[in-house]
């Protein structure tokens, strides 16, 4: 038998020879183990002392001693060949993580060094060999357990340095004694005197007070109670255990309740080992039975508190009831340390050892029963300058680049998981072009922007739909587009009944799609003042057939038809024929379908008229700017959206219940001494004001007074605005003559834009001022009143060409409260002269109807001076804004010099010249316009004052015919048959007859709903009021179409059907009457015929009043 070595006692494995060196048959001392270990250390990624790394293991003996768990290196310990090479240079690590308590499938990513091994042994009382692998997760656990590895590095070095010489001297006296022939081999541990590493070890274990520097001075105030020296205890344990028990390292010198948990585990382990060895010596082979016999009586006498037992039962009940694994581990961690694994498995059937280990690890990491630590909330440092951010956002959010859709929503998700629903937004240009535009805009204004990557991230955060088209977003166009969609559904429904064949269905659906696209794009490009196609001729479409003064007679015949304009009428005619001739539907169903088609046809026709009127009214603006004289001025007026108070640091209580500030913008466009167009903007800021005609009249008079003082050359002005009720009213027209007399500036004409097509230069100036106010707040300012608004707009360099004043309306000066103007809704242009007023229904159509000034004065009383109160007067401006109109040229731009001169180019002819330059990045957002600009200011001027250059998406058939005719006429060898063919095409007569004045605004007909419809709606409204389950207007409109009486007959005829908007308006009037206590619940329940008549009469009176107000 091979002799037992000292190291073998610690590793508890049999001694023997090594397969690597079979000739070595004797024991050697550790100090004789001096083979080169640098290659071994390098293969394990341990420090070797090379490349400026400090080696923590110097010799082969140190490496073997530490892997055996003897960190107190004793050079005189004997070792056999097997242990020498198994723990030395031929030791190989396992492929899995060796950290105590490791769970999961994490692969080792790092090597355990000697200091780490020493730290794990001191804190976990488990040996992990130097060179073993450790996973990333266990590295984090190790860092929590051992926050400072340098402590163990220092302790390990001090143990080695301080004991080398001492152990050599005491080796012979206190070394282990061996006998090679006796089976009762044992060893005697020396008495360790003045071992300095004890202090280091005790400091790490936080047990400095428990240990001493030497055995003789190992006790403090407890020294009188310690009777047996440590050496004698170790010798006794070695004798009883026959070398199977490792030496006891220290004796406790303080109460158990005060020691660290790791120290308590070590003491408990050593005590358990000692008791087991002693019992095995007394009763060999029966130590476990003897242990039960000894401790059974004591266990029986331990009366566990009843509440602890009840708590354990409760925990077990909750554990079995829950299905959440995290909660299971949380509950199990509360009792995992109190019971053994076998006891826990007996209490919880099916519980695995893995879950017990996980629960104990959970308890060590998070605490028994505690919740898992949530991830710390992320705090973002704002590295963007707020002023630059607001500048970029103001540009990106400009209405020229985005539009809100009338339907659809979009979801924004924040980092904390919250979701925000926003309306669907249409972005008119792609992100790259938008960023290039913004950078060019900043260069133009000498502003340093954010980086390009940051700008792209901002756009990606503000998600929006890609532009498909820019029309269909106002009410009239949206109704026309939805009518096409409704018609598509109708075609699909009748096709499902086999009324249409598949080919017919596909053809009709294609026609609907093409008609819808044509209305959105190319139709406006076909419209001309004089045209042989009746659908394109402005003079024919806007001439009033009943009034010769409102007509522009055409000097040509309308004998051309446009195949694209005919698409919609043709498909309507075809559908009507198919429905009328089919036997699939009964008469009621046919009436319903024909009524739906009639409604759709009416909406599309209104859409078409709306587009034509928009083109014509915009022509008036262009003609005025091109022919403006030096003594004349154009004033464009508009109310800005109310501005809510804004604070740099806004509390929640400051945000709710805010009331916005009203502000009115008047842009004055004129020509300077050089004949160039310039503009000045007058902004009036108010706190609380009613936006009515008198407020507009007061502002207009104040603007003209300031113009008279600052620009005496101006003697005539032209007014332009949208169709808001405060502008489009006879009350304001009555006051204009008096304003002209008091200001000595004659108001020559007032033009209105087409409804919902009145985008003006005011919008751009409003956007500039809003951007200025946002930047002011972002830089630390507060806006709490109109004075703060004024200071914000004027901060820094202010806004070019803008004057700002804070004002109040003097309502006591209002004298006009009613008028007798007729047909106000149909008037779009007014001309004011000293002796008369001329009105038109469309710009430039006819000479207009004249109303003598004597009759105008009879329509109402005179309005004296409005006396607007100015609390903070207008500021002086440094420079006026400039307006550039494109010059009319016969030939397209041919060189880059022209591009730089005019700052504009067309995509069709100038794009090749600009391909090598990225300067022309601002594209016109108008559908069909081919203009490009180098500067943002030029794009704004073009949108507000320029002429759009259109390019057709596709030529119509009659355009192709004209081109063919031109080619034939230029050909010398004219063939008669070609000429006849073309002439026949030109002489085609349009089957779809178009009436004169078809595009004029139609006055709203006051249609009285039938008594049956009103009664039915009142019944639905009453049900909603009494039960709380209110019916929506769309549901009510559908019920009117589908309701039947007891005999199964339809309750209402198609001519009685109502639109959703009509039902909503009727319900709102009923709700108003209900709030005014004119329709209480009792009256609803006990409504007799007289009461019902009174209520209906009141509703009808309100309907008439509402229609009158709409015409004013």
Structure summarized in a few sentences:
The chain has 1112 residues and is α+β, with helices and mostly antiparallel strands. It is built from 40 helices and 21 strands.
Report on the structure:
It is a single chain. The protein is built from 40 helices and 21 strands. Among the domains are: 1-91, no CATH class; 175-299, no CATH class; 306-366, no CATH class; 386-466, no CATH class; 628-645 and 660-819 and 860-883, 2-Layer Sandwich (Nucleotidyltransferase, domain 5); 896-945, no CATH class; 957-986; 1011-1110. It is α+β, with helices and mostly antiparallel strands. It is 45% helix and 10% strand. Strands 8, 9, 10, 11, 12, 13, 14, 15, 16, 17 and 18 form an eleven-stranded mixed sheet that branches. It has a three-stranded mixed sheet with strand order 5-6-7, with no helix packed on it. Strands 19-21-20 form a three-stranded antiparallel sheet.
Mean pLDDT: 76
Number of β-strand runs: 21
Please give the radius of gyration in angstroms. 48 Å
In the CATH hierarchy, what is the architecture of the domain at 628-645 and 660-819 and 860-883 at level 2?
Answer: 2-Layer Sandwich
Number of helices: 40
- End-to-end separation in angstroms reads 122 Å
Low-confidence stretches: 161-226, 298-307, 467-472, 886-920, 953-966, 968-990, 1079-1098, 1104-1112
Structural class: alpha+beta
Major sheet: 11 strands, mixed
The residue fraction in helices comes out at: 40-55%
* Beta fraction: 5-15%
CATH topology of the domain at 628-645 and 660-819 and 860-883: Nucleotidyltransferase, domain 5
Instruction: Give the overall shape.
Output: elongated
User: Would you state the CATH class of the domain at 628-645 and 660-819 and 860-883?
Assistant: Alpha Beta
Biased composition (Acidic residues): 894-903
Organism: Mytilus galloprovincialis (Mediterranean mussel)
Region (Disordered): 888-912
Protein name: C2H2-type domain-containing protein
């Amino acid at each position: 038998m091979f002799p037992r070595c000292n190291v073998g006692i610690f590793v508890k494995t049999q001694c023997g020879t090594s397969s690597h060196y079979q000739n070595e048959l004797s024991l050697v001392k550790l100090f004789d183990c001096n083979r080169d270990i640098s290659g071994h250390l390098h293969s394990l990624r341990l420090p070797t002392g090379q490349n400026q790394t400090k080696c923590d293991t110097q010799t082969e003996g140190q490496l073997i001693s530490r892997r055996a768990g003897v960190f107190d290196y004793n050079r005189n310990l004997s070792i056999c060949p097997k242990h020498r090479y198994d723990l030395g240079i031929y030791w190989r690590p396992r492929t899995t993580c060796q950290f105590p308590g490791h769970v999961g499938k994490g692969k080792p990513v790092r090597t355990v060094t000697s200091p780490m091994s020493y730290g794990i042994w001191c804190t976990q009382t488990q040996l992990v060999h130097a060179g073993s692998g450790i996973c990333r997760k266990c590295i984090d656990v190790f860092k929590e357990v051992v926050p400072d590895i340098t402590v163990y590095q220092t302790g390990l070095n001090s143990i080695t340095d301080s004991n080398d010489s001492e152990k050599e001297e005491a080796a012979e006296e206190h070394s282990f004694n061996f006998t090679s022939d006796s089976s009762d081999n044992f060893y005697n541990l020396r008495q360790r005197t003045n071992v300095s590493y004890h202090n280091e070890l005790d400091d790490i274990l936080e047990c400095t007070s428990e240990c001493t520097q030497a055995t003789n001075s190992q006790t403090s105030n407890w020294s009188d109670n310690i009777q047996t020296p440590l050496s004698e205890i170790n010798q006794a344990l070695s004798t009883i255990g026959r070398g199977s028990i490792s030496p006891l390292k220290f004796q406790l010198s303080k109460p158990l309740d005060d020691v660290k948990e790791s120290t308590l585990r070590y003491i408990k382990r050593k005590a358990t080992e000692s008791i087991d060895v002693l019992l095995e010596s007394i009763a060999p082979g029966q130590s476990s039975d003897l242990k039960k016999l000894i401790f059974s009586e004591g266990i029986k006498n331990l009366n566990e508190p009843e509440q602890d037992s009840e708590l354990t039962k409760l925990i077990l009940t909750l554990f079995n009831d829950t299905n959440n694994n995290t909660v299971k581990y949380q509950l199990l961690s509360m009792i995992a340390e109190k019971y053994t694994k076998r006891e826990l498995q007996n209490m919880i059937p099916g519980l695995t050892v893995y879950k017990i280990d996980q629960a104990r690890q959970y308890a060590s990491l998070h605490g028994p029963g505690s919740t898992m630590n949530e991830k710390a909330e992320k705090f973002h440092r704002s590295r963007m300058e707020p002023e630059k951010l607001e500048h970029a956002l103001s540009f990106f959010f400009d209405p020229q680049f985005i539009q809100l859709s009338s339907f659809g929503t979009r979801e924004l998700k924040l980092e904390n998981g919250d979701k925000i629903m926003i309306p669907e937004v249409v972005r008119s240009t792609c992100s790259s072009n938008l960023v290039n535009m913004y950078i060019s805009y900043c260069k133009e204004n000498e502003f340093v922007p954010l980086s390009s990557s940051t700008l792209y991230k901002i756009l990606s955060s503000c998600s929006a739909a890609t532009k498909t088209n820019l029309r269909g977003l106002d009410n009239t166009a949206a109704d026309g587009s939805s009518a096409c969609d409704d018609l598509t559904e109708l075609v699909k429904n009748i096709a499902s009944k086999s009324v249409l064949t598949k080919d017919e269905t596909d053809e009709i659906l294609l026609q609907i799609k093409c008609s819808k696209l044509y209305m959105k794009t190319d139709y406006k490009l076909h419209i001309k003042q004089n045209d042989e196609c009746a659908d394109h001729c402005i003079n024919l479409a806007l001439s009033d057939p009943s009034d010769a003064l409102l007509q522009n007679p055409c000097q040509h015949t309308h004998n051309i038809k446009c195949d694209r304009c005919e698409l919609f009428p043709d498909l309507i005619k075809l559908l009507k024929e198919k429905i009328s001739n089919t036997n699939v539907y009964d008469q009621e169903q046919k009436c319903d379908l024909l009524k739906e088609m009639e409604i759709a046809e009416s909406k599309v026709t209104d859409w078409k008229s709306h587009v034509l009127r928009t083109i014509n009214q915009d022509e008036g603006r262009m003609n005025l700017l091109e022919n403006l004289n030096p003594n004349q001025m154009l004033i464009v007026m508009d109310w800005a959206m109310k501005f809510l108070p804004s604070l740099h640091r806004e509390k929640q209580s400051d945000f709710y219940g805010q009331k916005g500030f009203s502000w009115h913008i008047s842009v004055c466009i004129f020509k300077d001494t050089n004949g160039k167009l310039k503009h000045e903007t007058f902004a009036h800021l108010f706190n609380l004001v009613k936006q009515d005609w008198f407020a507009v009249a007061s502002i207009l008079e104040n603007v003209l007074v300031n113009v008279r003082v600052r620009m005496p050359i101006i003697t005539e002005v032209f007014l332009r605005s949208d169709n808001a009720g405060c502008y489009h009213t006879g009350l304001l027209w009555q006051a204009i003559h008096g304003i002209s007399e008091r200001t000595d500036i004659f108001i020559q004409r007032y033009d209105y834009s087409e409804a919902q097509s009145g985008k003006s230069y005011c919008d751009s100036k409003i956007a500039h001022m809003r951007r200025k106010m946002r930047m002011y707040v972002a830089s630390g300012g507060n806006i709490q009143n109109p004075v703060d608004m004024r200071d914000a707009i004027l901060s820094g360099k202010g806004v070019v060409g803008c004057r700002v004043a804070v004002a109040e309306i003097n309502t006591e000066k209002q004298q006009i409260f009613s008028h007798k103007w007729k047909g106000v809704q149909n008037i779009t242009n007014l001309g004011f002269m000293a002796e008369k007023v001329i009105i038109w229904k469309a710009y430039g159509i006819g000479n207009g109807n004249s109303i003598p000034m004597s009759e105008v004065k009879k329509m109402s009383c005179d309005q004296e001076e409005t006396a607007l109160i100015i609390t903070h007067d207008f500021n002086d401006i440094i420079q006026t804004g400039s307006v550039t109109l494109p010059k009319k040229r016969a030939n397209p731009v041919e060189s880059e010099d022209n591009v730089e001169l005019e700052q504009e180019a067309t995509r069709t002819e100038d794009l090749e010249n600009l391909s090598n330059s990225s300067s022309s990045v601002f594209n016109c957002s108008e559908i069909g316009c081919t203009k490009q600009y180098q500067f943002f200011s030029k794009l704004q001027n073009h949108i507000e004052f320029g002429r759009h250059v259109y390019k057709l998406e596709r030529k119509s058939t009659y355009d192709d015919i004209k081109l063919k005719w031109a080619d034939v006429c230029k050909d010398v060898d004219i063939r008669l048959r070609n000429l006849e063919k073309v002439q026949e095409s030109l002489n085609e007569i349009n089957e779809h007859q178009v009436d004169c004045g078809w595009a004029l605004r139609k006055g709203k007909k006051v249609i009285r709903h039938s008594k049956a419809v009103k009664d039915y709606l009142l019944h639905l409204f009453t049900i909603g009021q009494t039960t709380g389950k209110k019916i929506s207007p769309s549901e009510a409109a559908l019920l009117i179409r589908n309701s039947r009486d007891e005999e199964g007959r339809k309750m209402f005829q198609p001519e009685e059907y109502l639109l959703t908007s009509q039902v909503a308006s009727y319900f709102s009037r009923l709700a108003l009457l209900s709030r005014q206590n004119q329709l209480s619940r009792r009256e609803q329940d006990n409504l007799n015929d007289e009461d019902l008549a009174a209520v209906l009469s009141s509703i009808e009176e309100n309907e008439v009043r509402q229609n009158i107000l709409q015409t004013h």
